[in-house]
Structure formats: C-alpha cells, structure tokens
Design goal:
With about 475 residues, this protein is of the alpha+beta class. About 30% of the residues lie in helices and about 25% in strands. The chain has 15 helices and 22 strands. The strands form 6 sheets. A 5-stranded antiparallel beta sheet has the order 8-9-13-11-12. The chain is globular, with a radius of gyration of 23 Å. It starts with 16 loop residues before the first strand and ends in a 23-residue tail after the last helix.
Length: about 475
C-alpha cells in the first residue's frame, strides 16, 4: 500500500468539533450545543465514508470494526494531541501503519484510527543507524540505506510493512538466526503513551517503557519515531533452494545449518505438489560483494534430493515478494493466518501430526517452517518457547475465491492448532486470526502477565490504546472513564 500524502485529504471532510453527548464528530461547529472544538492539528481528522471504510478493514479481510474518525497526522504532536483528547472524552485509539494486520488488530469500534502513512519521513541514515517516522515502509528505508552501503541486519520477507507496526509486534526473518528480531535491533523510540505523553526511550532512558513498547502490540504507547540499527550491506545474494522428501529431513538439515551458521539467511517452506501432498524446502542465502561463496562448503552434509542455486542482487532478494503480496492484497481475499513458535524438541512431532490432515488448500498461500536461536530474542514482550532453539510455523492462508464459511472453518482450525502448540510449550507470534479472550492472553504471557498488567496500568490506565488486540477488558464507562 502506497504512502499517503497529506495533500490528498478530502476537502470538506475535516472534523472541527466533537459532541460528547452523542460521541459524534462534527465537520461544522453548531451553535447552542455541548460540542467541543477540536484542538489545533497540523494534519486533519476526517470522517468521510471512504476513510472510515478503509480503516475498518485490513489485509485479513475478516474483521471490520468501524471507527468514527481517522487522524492523518501532520506531526508527532498531532498524535499526542488526539491521544490526550481520547483520554478526556472516553474514546479509543488504534494505530494503523500499512493495514497489514489479519484480524482487526489495528481497528477500533467507534474510536479513532491514526493513519501513519502521513507520518513517514526518513530523518537520518548514518553508518550504524537510521532515524525514521513510524509510518515509513521498510522498502523505502532499505532503498535509502543501500544507497549508503548499509542495511538493517534483519528484514521481514515482505518489505511493505511499516516500521512502527513491525516494532510493535516483533519482526522475524531469515536473518533472525544471527541477529534476533527487528525489535532486538531497535536503539531508541519516540512514543506517545496511552496518557498522551510524548517520551523518548531507549536502553539508557526510560528503559521500562522502551522494553514494554517493543513487541508490546501497541498496548502501552504509540510508536511515532524509531532509531534502528544498520550494518554494512553486501551487494549480492546467492540463494540455495534445497528440496527434501520428508519434513524431518528438512528440519534435520535446518538444525545443522543453524548450529554452524553457514548461511546468512535461513528459512524453509512446505511446498504443495500436484498430488495434494508437500515437498519440503530449505531456503538458504549467502551474501557476498566480490568473491562468491563456495557451494561445496555450504552444501556439505545436507544431502538434499534437489538443489537449485541462483545469484541475485541483495536488493532483489530482500524485495522478492513485494509485488506478489501487493497483487494478492488487491484481490481482497480472506486471510486467516496462523503463526506459532514451537519448541525444537516437539517440532517434528507437531508438524508431522499436522501434515496428516493439512491439505495444500488448507495451507493456503504460503507455509513456512524454520528455526532460530532463542538467545537472540532479548525483548521481554516477545514470548517464545523455552529451550535454545524454536521453530516458526507460519500458515499464511488465503481463501480463494472468497468464502466466509471456509474462512470461519480455517479460523476454527487455527484455534485448534494453537491449542495443540500451547499444550507442548509453544507460543503464538501474534499476527494471527485466532479467537483469543483476555484469559487466553494471560496464558500467553504466563509469568510475564503481572508485568504486562502493571505496564498497562502505568502507561495506559484508561485502556485507550489498541483495543483490537483484545488483551484487556475495557474500563467500565460507569464511572465516566472509557
């Protein structure tokens, strides 16, 4: 989804007042009413049908919570102003980057959605870091940093995500085996807390807030600007596609290359075959600038049944699925995704059992399976299984043609599979279409729940932020609070 320039605001749709009696936004200021004038904004607050409809959907096309207004901020101050206003008048706030959530996580029923596409400036690119607004797409940042010979150490497969949205969740990719998640490579944040305070936080300043926000699912503060780590970038990528007939052959090879770190990039896929089965693919990448890698060394001991090797530019590799995802998004297909982290010790058992019932149609678009090292996951809000290694299983389902009944069936399958993973010590990577209650979230956070609850009370006591996640019950309106 493209960035949205503030000059594209719809004329005449801007809000000028709020009626606290009806909770309606007004585009003209009536006389002799209790309406409250909106504070000064550098951007605009809009209520036109097109804006509200867009904010009430996302990539998943499964949840449709309609806000009453959309803020297109012209500055960081606008975000703080509207969050404070929400606190005063019993409203909720959802931050939306590129709308790539799958189950209404960035939506709010009757509240205000902040559309960060208008807050998307790259402020600085230095040899070791970049300073960017939350609405910047990783694609734009990668283009800017590669021009300077540097890049983020980890990238998600799809670069069309926003920086703020990804840092609110975690951000995992094929280089996480060496560098952790994107949140592990954030150096500093500028955030607006649930009370509307604008705060700069890092490992050295307001550390509790910094650690709460990274991977915090938007519950404690809205990220408005971020400083992220950069490393020297290669110019080329040699990509190895290794095929295996059994999933246990794949995971054995993945454990080998994870242990010795021979590939710069490591992922894996469950690829459908024509006979309604799967073959299993290890995808490994080796970066280089001058001398190419030694194929024999990199393939030693892996014994695949098939090998394909290709050289592409590093940018081509990082951006390899952008156009495909954009084309899929344009189809507006229901996308009931499931992403879970499974302990290494039970991965083979869980996935083998799953494959007894999983069909290519049930798997949907893409099915990923790959390991990473737990020691590199340093942010406490990202909940991963115990043990030195865990696997990501991602079923990036898409229902084509759209079918509501089929989508609901797959969500029910997600619920069942999530329960199975939880039973063996696994956790969810929270970008899913799952029916999760506040009690389920307490189980997800387990021993961390008291700290999560305390951070919510400290930074967002009125529970204004991110209601679409469903983590906390709303504060009762009986006392006049939202």
């Amino acid at each position: 989804m493209a960035q949205l320039d503030r000059r594209t605001f719809l004329a005449g749709a801007a809000v000028v007042a709020f009626d606290p009696v009806t909770s309606h936004w007004l585009t003209s200021f009536p006389e002799n009413t209790a309406a409250i004038q909106i504070p000064h904004l550098d951007g605009e607050l809009v209520t036109d049908e097109e804006s509200l409809t867009e904010a009430a959907t996302d990539y998943g096309h499964l949840a449709h919570r309609r806000p009453r207004a959309v803020l297109r901020p012209g500055s960081v101050r606008d975000v703080a102003t509207v969050v404070r206003f929400a606190n005063e008048h019993g409203l909720t706030i959802a931050a939306r980057g590129q709308g790539h959530s799958t189950f209404g996580q960035a939506q709010t029923d009757g509240g205000v959605v902040i559309d960060f596409r208008t807050l998307a400036t790259i402020h600085e690119v230095a040899p070791d870091r970049a300073v960017v607004d939350a609405g910047v797409q990783w694609l734009d940042l990668v283009r800017a940093t590669l021009a300077e010979g540097v890049a983020p150490p980890v990238s998600t497969d799809y670069l069309g995500l926003s920086v703020g949205g990804t840092l609110s969740v975690g951000g995992i990719g094929g280089a996480s085996q060496h560098f952790g998640l994107l949140v592990d490579n954030a150096l500093e944040l500028e955030v607006v807390t649930g009370e509307g305070r604008l705060v700069t936080c890092s490992a050295d300043q307001e550390r509790d807030l910094f650690e709460a926000v990274l991977g915090g699912l938007g519950q404690f503060a809205v990220i408005v600007r971020a400083t992220v780590r950069l490393v020297t970038a290669p110019t080329m990528a040699r990509v190895y596609t290794l095929t295996y007939p059994r999933v246990t052959d794949l995971t054995a090879a993945q454990r080998t290359v994870l242990a010795d770190g021979r590939f710069d990039y490591l992922e894996g896929q469950l690829v459908p075959t024509d006979d309604d089965g799967f073959v299993f693919v290890l995808e490994g990448g080796a970066w280089f600038t001058s001398a190419p890698p030694d194929d024999d060394v990199l393939l030693a001991g892996l014994a695949p049944s098939g090998v394909d090797v290709v050289d592409v530019t590093y940018f081509e590799w990082l951006n390899r699925i952008y156009e495909t995802v954009e084309q899929i998004e344009a189809l507006r297909l229901p996308s009931p995704w499931l992403n879970v982290f499974i302990p290494d010790a039970t991965t083979d058992e869980v996935v083998t059992e799953l494959l007894t019932t999983l069909t290519p149609a049930d798997a949907g678009g893409v099915a990923l399976l790959y390991p990473t090292n737990r020691s590199l996951i340093t942010r406490p809000q990202v909940v991963v299984p115990e043990g030195p290694v865990f696997f990501l299983l991602a079923l990036l389902r898409a229902v084509s043609p759209p079918d509501d009944a089929e989508a609901e069936r797959l969500i029910a399958e997600n619920d069942a599979q999530y329960a199975r993973v939880r039973a063996v010590g696994g956790t969810g990577y929270p970008v899913n279409a799952l029916h999760l209650s506040p009690a389920d979230w307490r189980e997800h956070y387990a021993d961390r729940w008291p700290a999560v609850r305390s951070a919510k009370a400290r930074y967002d006591p009125r529970r204004v932020l991110a209601p679409g996640q469903g983590i906390f019950e709303p504060v009762s309106r009986a006392s006049g609070t939202p």
